[in-house]
Amino acid sequence: MPRITVRGLSVDQVCQMSESLVEQLAAICDCETDNFTLECNTHPSIFAGKIVPAYPFIEVAWFERGPAIRDQVAKAITDHVLALGIPEVEVAFTFYAENGYYINGISCG
Amino acid sequence: MPRITVRGLSVDQVCQMSESLVEQLAAICDCETDNFTLECNTHPSIFAGKIVPAYPFIEVAWFERGPAIRDQVAKAITDHVLALGIPEVEVAFTFYAENGYYINGISCG
Amino acid sequence: MPRITVRGLSVDQVCQMSESLVEQLAAICDCETDNFTLECNTHPSIFAGKIVPAYPFIEVAWFERGPAIRDQVAKAITDHVLALGIPEVEVAFTFYAENGYYINGISCG
Which CATH architecture has domain B3-107? Predict the structure, then answer.
């Protein structure tokens, strides 16, 4: 955690941006790079009766860190995706409650 | 967005209902059909020690639009799934906060 | 529902723990075992430019049942994962609103 799920990018594209992106996120969040997990969602996307390329969309699931950090994280992700030559991306944040998050059985809340 | 994730249906079944469903949802939500993304979750489902068919379940992640629209969207999805000959389906809605949703780096909130 | 999504374990490992885990969860939640769905997320995990094993992480999406039940469910899941010889696991709970959950088109709220 933070848990970052990427949709609409290839595994190669996610690999390509992963190192620089995670270093930047770790600096913004003031934590270690190995706290971040990047998952590449490869499920088929369907439109008008057939499989189509998925729209670029990235979801960040984490504990709420406030709007200033969130804006910076959204910008870092967006910049990295656009730098791959992808013209558009949406980034959504969802929040875990600390008392509903358990590490080895111990609640964080 | 809205982002619709389908579980327990085959890719062919999702393709089959996709065009009519998305047209109906666009009419209910008063937006363009290309706002909707349909993702077909193909991860293995496990019960009692082995892989089994997944239970039909559809999740809609979007901005809150109130109960009247939500009821109509749930009905449209349910009707389309039942029309495939599937006897049961569950539909769940989750909500993005507008200030936690960024399009090309710009917050919607 | 409850919907349990497992990440960072192999399909074989999820199969191995599934029967005992679901029996224990059904006892804790006082419901039938067939209410539980176990999904094994097999999407690639990426770190530092390459595909790596995913960190063991389990998400439970359900209706809120309060902290006592939640603690017991977290413990049951954690115990089962650790018993596979996996040294660490995180368990996160997310909540559906009852009025945003529809069974065959009928809202639960």
Answer: 2-Layer Sandwich (3.30)
